[in-house]
Structures are given as C-alpha cells and as structure tokens.
Design brief:
The complex is a heterodimer of chains A (about 250) and B (about 230). Chain A has six helices and ten strands. Chain A is α/β, with parallel strands linked by helices. Chain A starts with 5 loop residues before the first strand and ends in a 16-residue tail after the last strand.
C-alpha cells in the first residue's frame, strides 16, 4: 500500500459544545492536511480552537461532525484497543503541564510507554537511558518529577513522547509553562527530533518563537482556519529581551 | 479489525498487542501505596479497625467456649447459650460493611485526585482494563495489609487480656477452639481469623470496583483538563 504524503488529514471537522441554550463552535469546518515529516505549528489566540484541534488529531476527544484520518485510517472507525495502540505506537504527546507520573522516576516515566508496547525490561531500560541522554538528562534518570525543574520535566516528557518511535509528536503549548530560555531549548530540541528522527511535529501554541522552526504555520481563529503560510513567506522580527541573550 | 491496523505502519513491522505485565503492575501499585502513605492509611483505616474488632470478638467467643467446656468438665456446669457471642459477631460483620462504604469513598477520592495521571496513561496507550487492574490491585493489597494488621491488633490485644484470666496455656488452646458456627461448620479460631483477613481483602476490592470503572471510562481530554 502506497504510503500517503499526508500523515494527518481532517475533513469538515466540527466540534460543538452546547452550553445551556447557546452552541459554542470550538471548531467549525476545519480541513487540514499535514505532510509527513513536516513541522507544523497551529497558532491562534486563547479560545481559538487550537487545543480542540489538538484533541481531535490526537484522538483524545470525539468530533461532533467530520473525520480525522491518521495515515489514511479513519479514527472514528477504530476500536478502543486500536485507539490505544495508536496512542502507544504512532503518536507521542507533549503537554503544557508536562503530565509526568509523580510517583515514578524520570527513567520509569520514559519507559512506561515501552512497557505497554511489550518491550522487555532490559530493552526498555537501554532505550530509555538512550533517550534521556539525547535530551541531555542522562545523569538525572533516577530523579522524580518534583526534583526536576520545569524545563527538565518537559525534556523528560519529550523523551517519553519518543519512547516507541512514533510517526507523529503532538505538542499542546509545550513552552506555555516555561521561561524564555527554557522555551527556546525545548523548541530547539523538538526541531532536532524532527530533523534527526524524521518525526512529524504538530504543535498547538501561541508562542511566536515556534514560528522560526516551523515548515508551515496554520493560523486559527474562532474555530476556523484563517490562513496557512509556508515559513519562507513569513517575516519574523522578534525584539531582543534584556538579560536573556546567550 | 486487523485490516485497519496494518495500515498504521509500525516502524518495527511487528504488530504486538498492548500489555501491562503483572510484575510491572504490582510494582506500580506498591509505589502508589507507599509514596502516598497518608492517603493509603486513611483508606485502609476503616478495614483495619473493622477487622480488629471482628478478630477481637472471634477470640472472645473462642475463649468463652473453651472456658465453658472446662467448667462443664470440672464442675458439671452447663455451658451457657452462645447466642450473645453470635450476635456480637454479626455486629462485627455489620461494622465491616460500614468500613467498606468508607473504602468506596476513599477510593473515589483517590481516583479523582489522579484523573490527570489516568488521562496521561491513556495517552501513553494504556487500555481501560489496565486502569481498572491498577486500582483493584491497590485496593486489594491495601485491604490485605490492613486486615493483617487489624487481625494482629485485635487478636493480640485479646490474647494479652485473656492471658491474665486463663493463663497462656488457655490462650494457646483457644486458637483451636470453635469461634463461630457457619452453616453447621464449627470454625476453629485460627481458621476464622484467616477467613476474616480474606474477607477484608475481598471487601476492599469490591469497594474499588465502581471507582476504578469510573476512572477507566473517562475520555482522556476530560481527564487531562482536571485541576489536580
């Protein structure tokens, strides 16, 4: 079967919430095609629907209308176990609030998806340590999340997202809880993973620092896509912040 | 539906099912219990006290029966009706049911506190059954540990008390004496205590069924939105 050029496709995607007597259209007729291997940023102000779109693509929530295709597979047709398989092997998630399991060490957090995927303990530990070294935390593998800074936790979360060599990394506001320098580090890390491991990165964010590393930027507002721009067509002028320059 | 799975290319090319090995589940359960020791203690305290009460009452019943036998042999005194003892044992059983309700509440609280964790695990590929398994294991383990501790406290305290009345020989002999009659079967004390501990563990698991099911059924987006 020919591998599709598009790893994610949405068609007529709608997500409505009924609140009392009003209907809130979080997503209204969204059609988005994500190319394999690209770094895509979904940008928009608060409440624009980018997190909702993130949830739809990641299979975390069901759309009211429309379809999401991952590798040309309709997500709505998947059973619960197939969906779990997808989340385990095909998609890696990164969240604004890191979402590491607090009772587990960094290494245990990174290897948990590998346990679900059926890896043996030895294989999992080796691979986990490898990933932690890739994100620069090889020496903190036995620290619990409370013993790590925000940036370090997000790096562990990134390593965890890569645990089972996914095709897609979905990041929801990955730099939302981080300061300027740490945010830049995470963005650089994500771009490196995108280039080295050929993972498609889809990031929902309102951090303008993300624009520079993206291949394409999708601007979303009030549940609708305003425009989609290629990186080369965007002129970025970011001011210099005092005290943070390297 | 294997057909659709094949179209999700796996870089390894081998389709493996998702699994949670029991050894890992047990390890996670142990961590969950001991890292949140305070919460675990509260969850377990109801069963602990209930089983302690039950075992104390069972011991007293066995000791009383032993005493009655000795009196009858020595003095020809008729053994008194054991109605009162039976009623007290039923009372202990009722108190265990109250403790079970307490466990349901505690486990519900525990599940609510961990919604985010559960949502995250589902994002990592956990099946609903894994979540249920983890919570039931936790409740079961807590229940057995609490029942064991309760049995030691309840029976132990009674042994110390009765040692003064009937001596240590009498105390040891009580363990072989009938503690309670269950459907025509005269249950010796040692068996009754073990049964009590098993019942404590079972009640804990049953109490956790509803909260665990609730936890597993939540869609990840809703779970991750939690504030905890």
């Amino acid at each position: 079967m020919a591998v599709s050029e598009y790893i994610v496709r949405t068609k007529d995607l709608c997500r409505y919430y009924v609140m009392g007597s009003t209907e809130v259209r979080a997503l209204d007729d969204v059609a988005l095609d994500v190319r394999r291997g690209e770094y895509l940023s979904i940008m928009g102000p608060s409440g624009s629907g980018k997190s909702t779109l993130f949830n739809m693509i990641g299979g975390l929530d069901k759309p009211t209308k429309g379809t999401v295709f991952i590798n040309e597979v309709d997500m709505a047709q998947l059973t619960a176990s197939e969906l779990a398989f997808l989340r385990c092997r095909t998609i890696g998630y990164i969240f604004q609030t890191f979402n590491l399991i607090p009772v587990m060490t960094a290494l245990e957090n990174v290897t948990l998806p590998m346990v679900f995927a059926g890896l043996s303990t030895d294989q999992a530990l080796d691979k986990g340590m490898d990933l932690l070294r890739t994100v620069g935390l090889g020496d903190r593998h036995d620290h619990k999340p409370t013993e790590l800074s925000g940036g370090q936790q997000q790096r562990v979360a990134t390593a965890r997202a890569l645990a089972n060599d996914p095709d897609i990394i979905l990041a929801d506001e990955p730099t939302g809880n981080l300061d300027l320098r740490t945010g830049k580090e995470i963005i650089t890390l994500l771009k490196r993973m995108n280039e080295e491991k050929k993972v498609t990165v889809i990031s929902a964010t309102h951090d303008l620092k993300m624009i520079d590393v993206s291949d394409r930027v999708v601007w979303i507002r009030d549940g609708k896509i305003e425009r989609i721009e290629e990186r080369k067509d965007i002129e970025v002028r970011v001011g210099v912040m005092e005290g943070e320059e390297e | 539906m294997a057909r659709t799975l094949e179209r999700i290319p796996s870089k390894r090319g081998i389709q493996k099912q998702i699994k949670l090995p029991w050894s890992r589940a047990l390890q996670m359960t142990r961590e969950n219990i001991f890292v949140r020791l305070g919460r675990s203690a509260i969850t377990a305290s109801g069963i602990f006290l209930g089983i302690a009460f039950l075992c104390a009452v069972l011991f007293a019943a066995a000791a009383a029966r032993l005493q009655a036998k000795i009196n009858f042999e020595k003095l020809g005194v008729e053994p008194p009706q054991s109605d009162l003892q039976a009623r007290i044992i039923w009372l202990a059983g009722m108190s265990l049911l109250v403790a079970t309700v307490g466990i349901v509440n505690s486990m519900l609280m525990s599940v609510t506190e961990r919604y985010k964790e559960i949502g995250t695990m589902k994002c990592l590929g956990a099946l609903d059954s894994f979540i249920v398994r983890l919570f039931l294991l936790e409740a079961g383990l807590l229940g057995i540990l609490a029942s064991l501790a309760g049995a030691i406290l309840g029976a132990g305290a009674m042994m110390l008390m009765y040692a003064r009345q009937i001596g240590w020989r009498g105390v040891i002999a009580s363990w072989g004496e009938t503690a309670v009659e269950l459907a025509k079967w005269a249950v010796p004390l040692w068996a009754a205590i073990l049964l009590g501990i098993a019942v404590g563990g079972m009640l804990s698991v049953m109490a956790a069924l509803y909260p665990a099911w609730r936890a597993a059924k939540m869609p990840p987006a809703a779970a991750l939105r939690s504030e905890f």
